Amino acid sequence: MASASDMNFGDMLDAVGEMLGPEDLALAHGTRRTYWPDFTARSNRLARNLREMGIETGDKAGFYLRNQPEYTEALAACFKGRFTHVNVNYRYLADELFYIFDNSDAAVVFFDAQFTDQVELVRGRLPKLTAWVQIGGGDVPDWAVDYDCLAADGDPSPLGIDRSPEDLFFLYTGGTTGIPKLAQHTHGNEVYNAWATTQLAGLEGKTLFCGLPFFHVNAVILTGLTPFASGGTTILGSPAGYRGEGILDNFWKIVDRYKVNFFSGVPTVYANLLNKPLEESDVSSLEGCICGAA
Length: 294
What we know:
Layout lengths: L8 H11 L5 E5 L2 E4 H17 L7 E5 L4 H13 L2 E4 L6 H10 L2 E7 L3 H7 L8 E5 L9 E2 H6 L15 E5 L9 E5 H15 L5 E4 L6 H13 L3 E4 L14 H8 L3 E4 L1 H7 L14 E4 L3
Helix pairs in contact: 1-2, 1-3, 2-3, 4-5, 7-8
């Protein structure tokens, strides 16, 4: 049996997708719910369609998005298609955006429709970036493709490709000590971290509420990777920033509604949480909280 460090998230997601059925919740965000069979089919189609568009093994994929189900679907598609995730702070503008996309050699970018104007300012400077994928509906510019078409159309079956534990996963720092710095992770390394976190914290198959924006390293690893390594559920709060005011809107009611087992956040989020009344909510499902960063 292979050790965790010899595995790839794409292979793990293929295996989990075969095991879970229509009653198993993968993602929830507001009133939106995505169950595992649909999550598996959509991420498979997305990965396959991107490869057919010319995105190849090792190509970099920028994520210029807020917290939303499409972020996690596209992340899974990257794992399955062997593309390299590149996190992008959704507050970046103009030259900051150009720097991240150019420095990472991005070949494809997923962007929310609300950021179209910012993308328009930089796309002409990025001739190597071959595909822009718009999320959020509305009018899709002629230089972009619609995310929902890629996720809803085509073959939903697993890709059936060989993957490697050496496939890369990019994480950029926030640039608080100068320009953003790149840390290159391998799937083998992050699968091991996810497995260890799952075992130590008892996260296997559990429901985790993400209290951080996905461009934060803590959020992508703990919420974007760990629950899915064991076929769990991720609950996404409002896409607010580090202080977490918006993320904590109706926090206890969400814990009650989805029977949340774990919450992940940073100290400022927990400080705000202490001022939130229980609002007559049943929070007995909550087993623990995970704290990352300083």
